[in-house]
Amino acid sequence: MAISIGWLISAAVFSIRATILYFHTFDSNPYPCCFLFAQTPPLAIPQRSCGEQLRVMKYERPNTRDLAGNIVLIYTFFSGFWIVCSDRLLALLIHDLTLLTKLQTVKGWVFVLLTSGLLYGLVRWRIRSLQESNNLLQGIVEGTDDAIFVKDCAGRYVMLNSATAQHIDKLRSQILGRDDTALFSPDTAREIMEIDRSILATGETRSFEESITINGSTRTYHSTKGVYRDSKHNVIGLIGIARDITERKQLVEELKRDKEDLAALSTVTANGISTLNLQELLDVMLERIVEVMQADAATIRLKKDDTLQVCASIGIEDDDYLGYPIPIGQGFAGTIAATRQPLYIEDAQIDSRIINPFIKQSKIRTMLGVPLERNGNLIGVLHVKWLSIHSVSDRKLHLLEITAERCTMAILNAQLYEHALQLQERLQLQIDHMPLACIVNNQELQLTDWNPAAERIFGFTKEEVLGANPCDLITPPAVRSLVKKIFQQLEAGQATAHSINENLTKDGRTIICEWYNTPLKAADGKVIGMLSMAQDITERRAAEVALRDSEQRYRTLFESNPHPMWVYDTETLAFLAVNDAAIHHYGYSREEFLSMTIRDIRPPEDVPALLKHLSKTNPGLNVDGIWRHCKQDGTLIDVEVTSHPLVFSGRQAEVVLANDITQRKQAEEQLRRYAFYEPLTGLPNQALFLERLEQELEQARCGKAGLFAVLFLELERFELVKYSLGHLAADQLIITTARRLEKCLKPTDTVARLGADEFAILLTDIQDSNEATNMADYIYQQIILPFTLNGREIFSTTSIGIAFCERDKLASSALKPSKEVSNISLAATPLTCSNRPEDFLRAADTARHHAKMQSHLRHAVFNPAMHEQAVARFQLETDLRRAIEQEQFQVHYQPIVSMETGEISGFEALVRWTHPTRGIVSPVEFIPLAEETGLIGLIDWWVLRQACAQLGVWQQEFATIKPLTMSVNLSGVQLGQLGLLERLDQILRKTGVSGHSLKLEITESSLLKNASSGTAMLEHLKALGIQLSIDDFGTGYSSLARLHQLPIDTLKIDRSFVNRIGIEGDSLEIVRTIITLAHSLQMDVIAEGIETPQQLAQLRSLGCEYGQGYFFSKPVEQNSATALLRSQVQW
């Protein structure tokens, strides 16, 4: 026992010594990172960054202490177990104590020898593994381009790889044992040593970038440094890894700049995809392009026919430039479009390729442009402009070319998107109105569309099903495999798939649907979804099943049908069975029905036709028809009948399904009435009127003698009634007028309502023209009678135009071969119209317009001269519009003279029109037409821009003269326009003219028309500093009570009063009164139309401030007006 205990103690001592030897083997390693490479596979090491490698070196050391402890415990347990067990076994087998002692001693030495050999092998294996790990580490350290080094706490290099020596540009022997002061410049060494001391003090691992100057060259390194410790965890030095990132950093900076530019340009495409609105897209593009290119302006011109037209521009707001088309092949943009190559012009002011006059005037110097094209097709041109000489690098050109590609794609995408939206809207409209359920699934069998018919059939709304799987909603579990199989077939290339299967509704019903499935394919032919069209055939299938199956099953369908159904004997016509719907719909009881025949539900007058129809009907065929039926209460209804032969209780019979279409027929009749009759008055509309007129003309062509006439009348004051008393009162006025007109006519005559307040009358079989004119007078007398609307008496009047047609003359002209008469003025005589109803109606309308213009006429009879006048007026309007477009106008200036000094104080701008063929057109001729057609606003705005621009020129040239003013007429159209203030402010800012220098002349009639909003608008104009003047004062009907409330600066006395000064005493008194009134309201006065010295003297004596008229100067063009200013003439 004592021996066993001794052996146990020896084993324990031996284990402790083995453990000490194990630790000594590891802790004696001079490299602080040997454990890393002893445990880490070689291929895993290069995958770590510098900082990660260093952190692993410090903190991933294997836990050898735990391993050694486990070995000691296992060894001790095993040794004790072996010694105790073997001793007991020997003690049981050998009883000789001496022999036992010897054997135990031998056994012990054998155990010692074996365990010693085992320990020797273990230590040798660990030393060899450690040596291999160190070799691997050395290979990796020497094989990298990164500088790896170890310093002691004093900063001296104690270990480094060859890459470190290469970076420092010294031999390894020149580095080892030295610190940074011996290797680098003082500043560099100080920075390195400060970082090293900080790391040694904190013990942290730090990664950072540092710039190191070696032999005069500064390089950038990404360094990672950390401390290493001895076995007692004391800091004994510093480990560092440095990687030269100089070239990479430069490349990163360049890539960063390019990335920022490309990112900015990518915003263009992103915005284009998000907005897909072409104009918004172009504006966003140009903003980003100007920003990236650091340009002053940019323009996108898109190809239209053979020219390039501006579609978007930034930095340029000139209307002339934006509207200037560039022919392809000419100019800067045209050259780019023709050559399809980028074009750079360093100085546009001297380059001969620039043809746009705006470029020469706008100080644009450098221009760069690239074509916008796709697949060889020219889309347009993108060009940027600088106001100074600007050199363009290849990088910027490349960026602009990339931008052009993206612009082209974005523009095409936007155009395609707009086209796709239109197609989608049309398709969606068809789908929404389709009677079949239309369902669209994507490739994942998720619903993407669900039309109203599908909502009606299945009960689910579109919002409830979008994104859901149809198998989960409307497909029973037993059918889902079939649906998936159909989709697989379509995906595999099958064109269509047809199936009939059960489906579920939202309320849990099972219905039978007939499905037609078609694959939806992308451009590359890949199936991206499925279009399914379904028809609910539940009732149809049930009817078929009922007819094929037993009578009981048939009766179930028969009784549950919502439409009336019955079975009748084809021989006796007696009812054999009726369903509940028929009883409910017709009002008869079941017993009453079964005692009747089908003749009893027909009106008596329809029974013969019924019997005739039945006699011709083949009992073996289905018979469809629309009949009239009579309910129990006598009500007649229209019924659409479908019948089918069958054998009922052994008798030949037919089953009838009746669908009440009374409401549908009434709706159809109503639609037909709406097509030919005006709904408010019940009168024929224009279509029916022209049809009846065509009938009269046709009778005339066939030789029927006689005379007929068309009257066209317009009800006056209709608009006033509508906007004062309301639409209902206006409708009542029209209805009452229609009734009065009907009472005036014979039954054979026709009165029609053509428009809101327009009526046409066809008088047939009249004896002579006097009968028509007398009828017109009579109608006029009826119209002017008072109308009572909403308890008020309303008076109206009318203008009537008359056009005659003599049938005999028309018939004789129809017998002669002639060209088609297309113009009313080609009639043979004033009483003969052309052969078309439209021209006939137009002739009457022309006569009505003539009567309206001649206010003393109640009616007028058409003659060709009226048409010629209308054509001339239409031509003048056309020429006027072209004149506005081509700017055929000129502005003439008439001086306004100060009565006090006799000098020119300003001018009034007056428009003149020089027609290219007619010469000078009088304002008296075209101004009223412009006011009537609404074109006066465009003319006045043009005059205002020209006048302000000229005033700006004069103010600069004659700055020493008292500030000049410019008077410009402001029409009533402009006064009521939205944006008036903004446009005026824009013109003033653009021309550089102060608002105080501009006088706007407003007529009294314009103020009356805009009475409600005019005062507020005048206040806003005054806020801009603009002076206001009432033109032609005294000729209108303005309220003097409101005059003092208006912010008016000047009253302008009309020439009609000034011309009669000295001739009529009343005129002088009127002028004196106007001047006194103006002065009392703190207003100036301008006398217009001064032509004699006596008039000038009289006005000066009355205290008039300003004068204007031919005595001073007639309106003259710009150069003559400038000459007047230079002459400094005085009156």
Descriptive report:
This protein has 7 domains: 2-141, no CATH class; 146-244, PAS domain (Beta-Lactamase, 2-Layer Sandwich); 255-420, Beta-Lactamase; 434-536, PAS domain (Beta-Lactamase); 563-666, PAS domain (Beta-Lactamase, 2-Layer Sandwich), CATH 3.30.450; 677-862, Alpha-Beta Plaits (2-Layer Sandwich), CATH 3.30.70; 876-1126, EAL domain (TIM Barrel, Alpha-Beta Barrel). The chain is built from 42 helices and 37 strands. The strands form 7 sheets. It has an 8-stranded mixed beta barrel, surrounded by 5 helices. By secondary structure, it is an alpha+beta fold. The model is unreliable at 25-62, 619-623 and 811-833 (pLDDT under 50). The longest helix is centred in the first third of the chain and has 47 residues, at 97-143.
* Top-tier CATH class of the largest domain: Alpha Beta
Helix content: 40-55%
Tally of structural domains: 7
Q: Which fold name corresponds to the CATH topology of the largest domain?
A: TIM Barrel
Q: What is the annotated CATH architecture of the largest domain?
A: Alpha-Beta Barrel
Query: DSSP helix count?
Result: 42
Query: Strand order of the main beta sheet, please?
Result: 29-30-32-33-34-35-36-37
Number of strands: 37
* DSSP strand content: 15-25%
Structural class based on helices, strands and sheet pairing: alpha+beta
Taking all Cα atoms into account, the compactness measure Rg is: 53 Å
Assembly state of the chains shown: single chain
CATH superfamily of the largest domain: EAL domain
Distance between the termini: 154 Å
Looking at the structure, what is the overall shape? Answer: flat
Main pleated sheet? 8 strands, mixed, barrel
